[in-house]
Amino acid sequence: MEHPENNEAYKGLAVNKGVEQPSSVNPYLKRKPKKRRLSVSEFVEGILKGDVTVLSQAVTLVESVKPEHQEVAQEVIEKCLPYSGNSVRVGISGVPGAGKSTSIDVFGLHVLERGGKLAVLAIDPSSERSKGSILGDKTRMEKLSVHPKSFIRPSPSAGSLGGVARKTRETIVLCEAAGFDKIFVETVGVGQSETAVHSMVDFFLLIQLAGTGDELQGIKRGIMEMADGIVINKADGDNLERAKLAATQFRNALHLFPAPESGWTPRVLTYSGFYNIGIKEIWDMIDEFIRFVKENGYFEYRRNEQSKYWMYESINEHLRDSFYHNPKIESMLQEKERLVLNGGLTSFVAAKSLLDTYFDEMKR
Ligand code: GDP
Fold it and tell me: How far apart are CA 173 and CA 176, in angstroms?
């Protein structure tokens, strides 16, 4: 067909016939075949060999929301499970600016000097909004990120805190199967995320700063109660005395809490991540704790309790997902909400009618 631009109306414009092009400028160039996804057994084999590239790819699958990825991921996790568990898992929490990245960098290097391999994971409930505010940028852990025995992974970003936390928990299994015998799970100190981290670690370390005046203000009691150790960072220069004072105040406050189930009395230490002071003492404390709780049976007990917790968490998450993604429920939800808001229905009646609909749908 004649090209419309060759029409009279387009006088002056003509479309010439193209010159035939050779199929490839470089006839010897071979296109790289598209990367094939590994099979479950290739994933497992790679992970067990400690291949970090394969581990990374497996973690990406764990984090994926695609059902076909999840299917493979769950199989890989299941096959890795018998090889997991043999590690020390440490949760590290502190408000933004407390010095988590700086501290984990030096602390991690110290731990690696003592041998073994270290994985640093994160749970950051805000990462969806801020695109990975913590650990998103590996350069924040400059030295650790280039260490051959370290594996640093930012927080999974998709989904609810529960979902994000579950993925991190599953990633721990993969890292352990890959031979990482120390796992740090970092979280920003904002409340609920600590509970999530606490439910997957053996030792919960709380990083604090000496403030101005009342140190304990604003620190939620629940978070302090979870801590197996509190460390006051930036104990350097002019700040040294204030950090020591803060430590004393924390020690006094801890006395007021009921004795922890572990039988361990939480310690309070001061250190400086920036100047690398007091780092060894922190790991010594964790080491001592692990020996202590392994001896009195609490280590096993806590891990079992955590497994139980995650079973129920998983059930809750799946039920919630299935409920809220049910098309019938989705179509009814807004209307029910409106009725509740304008007093047309009580919350309970609305909930019951939605649940009844859901269960009826499930029976079909
Ligand atoms: P994060 O937000 O908890 O990860 O905190 P960062 O590690 O990014 O540290 C926040 C700021 O505190 C940075 O400017 C660090 O240089 C500084 N900082 C971290 N550790 C120390 C320390 O031990 N002493 C002093 N004086 N400053 C520190």
Answer: 5
